[in-house]
TrEMBL record:
SUPFAM superfamilies documented for this protein: PUA domain-like
Descriptive protein name: Peptidase S16
PANTHER family: ATP-DEPENDENT PROTEASE LA (LON) DOMAIN PROTEIN
Cited Pfam families: LON_substr_bdg
SMART domains: LON
Alphabetized InterPro entries for the sequence: Lon_prtase_N (IPR003111), Lon_prtase_N_sf (IPR046336), PUA-like_sf (IPR015947)
Transmembrane segments: none
UniProt superkingdom: Bacteria
Annotated organism of origin: Pseudidiomarina taiwanensis
Domain called Lon N-terminal: residue spans: 1-198
């Protein structure tokens, strides 16, 4: 189900956050400082659209941003030791970017259609290794925000979202997997990828 269109500032990144996840960020460019201030003041329902960078895309034509973004809100902020602004965002749902315009300070704002998150799906017994491997990653790297958000290791959709945040694969691959009504395609992808990695270690 596609929801009615909304507008939100776009924050293109190589780091990815998906529904149910969190991400900590350092903000230093004036356009993004403004973005955070306006989001905290409730503009555009407080949303920031966390977008995936398309390195092959033309920046002048705003094609350096992949079409599926994640709507997130600021849940915490702080002044970092270096004096920069630090924020933590919580991701709510994905959205499809329809149009992009660039404001005078370079901040890009998109018109987006939010889409439904993947349906809640129990993690099957044969896929429990995906949750176990994910837990091991979080135990080894406790600084990852995924280890601090509310956790649902028995839910296939949640486990898939968290793996897609972490995997060092091309954003285009993640876009193709997200462009699906459920997590089954991602589950299949993860089964093969992680099993191959386990066999090779």
């Amino acid at each position: 189900m596609v929801h009615s269109e909304l507008h939100a500032p776009l924050f293109p990144l190589n780091a990815h956050v998906l529904p149910g996840g969190r991400l900590r960020l350092r903000i230093f460019e004036p356009r993004y400082v403004r973005m955070v201030k306006e989001a905290c003041a409730g503009k555009n329902q407080g949303y920031i659209a966390m977008a995936m960078l398309n390195e092959a895309g033309n920046r002048e034509l705003n094609r350096h941003i992949h079409p599926i973004a994640t709507l997130a809100t600021v849940i915490d902020f702080e002044t970092l030791d270096d004096g920069l602004l630090g924020i933590t965002v919580q991701a709510e749902r994905c959205a499809v970017i329809n149009e992009v315009h660039t404001e005078s300070d370079g901040l890009r704002v998109g018109s987006l259609n939010p889409v439904e998150n993947w349906p809640q799906t129990p993690l099957s017994a044969e896929d429990k290794f995906l949750a176990e491997q994910l837990q091991q990653v979080y135990q080894s790297y406790p600084e990852l925000e995924g280890s601090k958000c509310q956790q649902y290791f028995d839910a296939a959709d949640w486990v898939c979202y968290r793996w897609l945040e972490l995997l060092p694969v091309q954003a285009q691959v993640k876009q193709e997997l997200l462009n699906s009504d459920c997590c089954e395609k991602t589950l299949s992808y993860l089964r093969q990828l992680i099993q191959e990695n386990t066999e090779n270690t």
